[in-house]
Amino acid sequence: MESYYNVKEYGAVGDGVCDDTISIQKCMDYAQEKKGVAFFPSGTYLISSTIYFGRKDSDSANEFTIQGTGTANTQSMIKMVNDGNMAETGSEAKVCIKGLAFLHEGKSGNILRLEKGFGHGVYDCMLIRNGGNLDDMLYFTGSYVEIVNTGFGNAEPNCYAIRCTTEHGKININSNIFDCRIWGIGKGLLIDSVPGNRPEGLKVSRNMFLNTGEEQITIETVLHVDISNNMLDQCCKTSVLIRPVGHSVCGAFLLGNYISPAKDQVEGICVLIEQDEKSLMVLSLHMANNMLAYAGYGIVGGSNLVNANICNNTINDITHCGIELDGSKDSIIENNSFWNCGVSKKIG
């Protein structure tokens, strides 16, 4: 049975005025030492600098939990008005974060930075940040990370709510983003990497992207990503942007999604496979059983798209063209349903 350690017993006040940074850190360090739970009763806990999940001066890999009371009427919230990261992994210890709200009002820094260790979990949380902060909200690099039933209120148009990436010499494999809600005028999810590396086996399912920013899901490099049964609505430019960089994109599966950049029904694009001057490849794009609607274009791609299977999709209320591919190689396009499209298909 896990032992609970109340942050208020370590000096935290939770009134949103007193600085609780030191008290919270003491409680979390002790919870890790005992493989227990650092518990946050209802309240607003003001911090003035980064708090660390796992002691920075320790080699301990003890798993531990950060637990709040939820994000509704009885919410436990950690608030930061200073610049810098709110919370980050300080050691290789696995941490689970549950039932906490995070509010970042500073002008720089991630809300959560999960950079060390692997197997971290973020469950039933809420992350909110103001505009003007050019750092992504949740940044993770490790493997087997789970982000589940968590809300992201992104008020910065130029940055992403979630960034899944890698570091040199470290793999990012088999992570899950499930049942989350992303809203606001900012961007949604970015999948990218350092040179010579790429994430593998990422699953993005049953999420609701209601952000009205320019991109909802952006894929720069990945080896197998499964994007299924999501709602991507109200984007103002490109709902799914595949922009190949580095090792490029291999194995992108878009299955059973509702995709609609409805804020721009003249020039908005549901799915764009971008082609740059280097002609990096997008290999094995599989799209099936999606609904693409209320946009300028449905699917747009060029000669860097190889081995695409675009089948059994419903494409409706498209101003210009449902599917426009110029020079795609070894691709299959069949059994798609078109309704109220300016042009159903342009295949060059």
Quick description:
This protein is mostly beta strands. It has one helix at residues 21-33, and strands at residues 4-6, 15-19, 37-39, 43-47, 51-53, 64-67, 76-80, 87-89, 95-98, 101-104, 112-114, 121-123, 126-129, 138-140, 146-148, 151-154, 160-164, 176-178, 181-184, 187-191, 200-205, 208-211, 215-219, 222-228, 231-233, 238-242, 249-255, 258-260, 269-273, 282-288, 291-301, 305-306, 309-311, 314-325, 332-334, 337-347.
Largest sheet: 22 strands, parallel
Structural class: mainly beta
Strand coverage percent: over 45%
Name the average pLDDT.
Answer: 94
Please write out the topology.
Layout: E1 4-6, E2 15-19, H1 21-33, E3 37-39, E4 43-47, E5 51-53, E6 64-67, E7 76-80, E8 87-89, E9 95-98, E10 101-104, E11 112-114, E12 121-123, E13 126-129, E14 138-140, E15 146-148, E16 151-154, E17 160-164, E18 176-178, E19 181-184, E20 187-191, E21 200-205, E22 208-211, E23 215-219, E24 222-228, E25 231-233, E26 238-242, E27 249-255, E28 258-260, E29 269-273, E30 282-288, E31 291-301, E32 305-306, E33 309-311, E34 314-325, E35 332-334, E36 337-347
